[in-house]
Amino acid sequence: MSSSPGPSRGLHITLWVLQVLLGIAFFATGFMKLVVPAAELAEKMTWVRSPIGFLLPLIGAVEALGGLGLILPSVTRIMPKLTPLAALGLVIVMVGAMGTHVALGEYPEVTAPLVFAVLCGFVGWGRWKKAPIAAR
User: Has residue 4 been placed in a domain?
Assistant: First the structure.
């Protein structure tokens, strides 16, 4: 009987590194959007002054919770299937960010959300299909 080999140790390490780095980044930026006054954020983030600027608290909450979702379910091994779902949710947020920047004509600003979307997509795929974490 031949059994397929499990995921490589390198893939697990890569996914953990990405989960932690992305989790910290999303939590920090989401938390910032929740606590820093919108007028202050608008100085650096022009989209805050756009018609969708009213979504700032919602976007901040989703990013902060998504950042936690990339790390906590896997670390605690309590409902670890939430990690790829958090990654997918953050991909959707980043697609929205790209669309917003395109709509505002801020084409160079599309790069960062594109990179984050790809990395979150990789984490989601990796933790769903290639190297899932077993629940307790």
Answer: no
pLDDT (average), residues 78-93 = 98
Q: Determine, yes or no, domain membership for 2.
A: no
pTM (predicted TM-score): 0.93
**DSSP assignment of the chain:** --------HHHHHHHHHHHHHHHHHHHHHHHHHHHS-HHHHHTT-GGGGSGGGGGHHHHHHHHHHHHHHHHHHHHHTSSTTHHHHHHHHHHHHHHHHHHHHHHTT-GGGGHHHHHHHHHHHHHHHIIIIISPPPP-
What phi and psi values does residue 112 have, to the nearest 5 degrees? -60, -50
Range of the domain at 88: 9-130
Q: How many domains does the chain have?
A: 1
Question: With contact defined as beta carbons under 8 Å apart, do 19 and 128 qualify?
Answer: no
Residue 85, pLDDT above cutoff 80? yes
Distance set, CA 20 to CA 38, 54, 57, 63 (Å): 27, 29, 23, 14
Q: Is residue 113 part of a domain?
A: yes
